[in-house]
Amino acid sequence: MKFYGSKEGNDAEVLIGSKAVLDKHDFVSTGVLTYALGDIMEVELPQYDAFGLGDKVKMTIYSKSGLFVFETTVVAKDHGSVIVINPPDNRKKFTEKREFPRIDIQHDGLLHVLHDVKKKNKHHFDNPVGISIKNISMNGVGFTIEDNSIVDKIVDKHVQLDVEMDLGFSMSCKTEIVRKEKSENGIYYGARYIEVAEMKTNALRAFILKNQVESYFVQKRDAKYKSLLEKKSAVNQ
């Protein structure tokens, strides 16, 4: 992987609109980078059909901030564009609001153990308490707790919880509360992971990547639909 020029501190948006070249074996196609956030990048190009899901490609980006050359993988396609992975080494060259992208989801989970570090006591629930997962990333999770009687026990930060999340696969982890605030659905908690089974890390990364791609396509299509409605309304006026 090669990088040229000085990129430290640049926002990822500097890449938007840059010329991007995808090279697969003996086939080369040139397009425009239209999206770069978190783990994914989108390139619009006329020969998008030449690339298949899982294809390994070399990507070259000609941006105002310099020249970027790296190996990546095609993970999704839309009409007129392909989505590729934005490698960690490339992401490190740019500043983003979050170190890891946080995606909104609607999944369930169970709270098994509550550990108050300050009081040095631990409570095991005979009947696990249901939680509703609102968002997730590679370093934390946001959720609400269905049983209001539990809310008073989580009075401050640094309370640790053993939870089991149902993400289409079971993922158990230990978390620490870092944020607590009122929401429309009760009390919202933001927690960071303390312990995650190593064998589950790749599954979590794949889950987040899949949802990030799906969310982006939904937003993109909604934006196109809204634009068409606005144009139609302007014509009828």
From TrEMBL:
Molecular-function GO term, any one: cyclic-di-GMP binding
InterPro entries recorded: PilZ_domain
Domain spans labelled PilZ: 97-208
Superkingdom of the organism of origin: Bacteria
Name of this chain's protein: PilZ domain-containing protein
Species this chain originates from: Paenibacillus sedimenti
